[in-house]
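Hi, here's the filled form for the chain we discussed.

Project: internal
Contact: R.S.
Residues: 144
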Amino acid sequence: MKLLFAMFPSVLEYTVLCVMVLYMRLEFAGGLMSDDKTQPVLGTPCWHVEEFVVSKECTLCTSFETKTIEKCSTSGFIEKINCVQSNKEETRSCHSALMEKHAFWNFVGAMIGASFLFALVVVFRQRTLDRRALEKVRKQIESI
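And the returned structure, exactly as it came back:
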């Protein structure tokens, strides 16, 4: 019975903490789910809050662009976007389909190479174990 009373304060604290976290999560989610999108947050790119048109497709950044435009350092590719309502021209980082295809085939090649290497290791190990088993059987037959 003493154990139950000793545990009660910690259970009560844990329950209060859980209720507070749940309340805060519900309050935060309620603020996010509101339909009031008339005021964009400062620093938010325009393509997050309004319609846009891609004016220049995803292209590889030049060495100068990589040094001057921060968004080029993320993926090495960039596209230019015109926002319809604010009439802003902005850039954003993108992933090139050619780059993704090249990375995929590099991965496939690496996996084929690794599987070939491990297949050789398995064959070598199996031959070694077979040789040991035959040697053991030969010694047992000789001892008879």
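Let me know if anything looks off before we file it.
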